[in-house]
Amino acid sequence: MSIQWKGVMPAVTTKFTEQDTLDLDMFAVNINAQLEAGVHGIVLGGTLGEASTLSDAEKSTLTQETVKLVDGKVPVLINIAEQTTKGAIAAAHTAERDGATGLMMLPPMRYKAGDAEVVAYFKAVAESTSLPIMVYNNPVDYKIEVTLDMFDQLLACDNIEAVKESTRDISNVTRIKNAFGDRLKIMTGVDTLALESLLMGADGWIAGLVDAFPAETVAIYELQKAGRIQEAIAIYRWFLPLLELDINPKLVQNIKLAEVHTGIGTEHVRAPRLPLSGEERAHVLEVIKKGLESRPTLPDYKNL
């Protein structure tokens, strides 16, 4: 399956049991809720997926199970976040073997690589696999920016096709479009800039709060695509306090707590993360409560 870089693709959370093993039953509940809402792809093992805590075997299990669950309906991407080029190439080969449709790739972890090193890293992986690649550009959290000059070099690799644009600079959508047109597809990666990015020309949305609110997220995308901008804005304004739970160091705990209250997740996280407590927990619960109390009635967004 080739990837149509468009629409809403959830960066799904990884579900754990109380015994700190993969909870594949609850994982399936959430994936099925995403598919029912009409998402356009699934992204595994990202920041929200607690990537740094997962073993290679667990990543393989999640990929294989997701491929079975989606049954060809949407593409399945697995994130690569490795410390070495050798490790990243091995991860790409494993993803291909496990049936993934594509890769989301961060720059090298831990070592703050220079521009030439980052370009060489991405190129080496791209040349080692036939899978399409989306570069995850998040200098705010990961301290390395993939610049336009670097993308100009990377696009020599035909299978580097998209960017998850998480610089938090809304103007970057226009810069990328001006520089590369449709050669580099743009998937906005910041929930609180999502609608703005889509209206400025982003092709899709790698979303976080979609994990708890799949229908509302897809409705925003479909409404703006259909030109029903004011309806999209109305839902987005309701959604914004919840979306702000994504731009927070505790985004995993925040979103998992929201999933509990919409019935499609659990609160279990993997140590060193701990569930929210005290005033922090009370604040997030209040945001979720207010959101649920004023949850909008959605139009028939699937048939626009």
TrEMBL record:
Binding residues annotated for pyruvate, in chain numbering: 206
GO biological process: N-acetylneuraminate catabolic process
Coiled coil: none
UniProt entry keywords in alphabetical sequence: Lyase
Full protein name: 4-hydroxy-tetrahydrodipicolinate synthase
MF-aspect GO terms: N-acetylneuraminate lyase activity
Active site: 136, 164
Family: Belongs to the DapA family.
InterPro entries with a match to the protein in the record: Aldolase_TIM, DapA-like
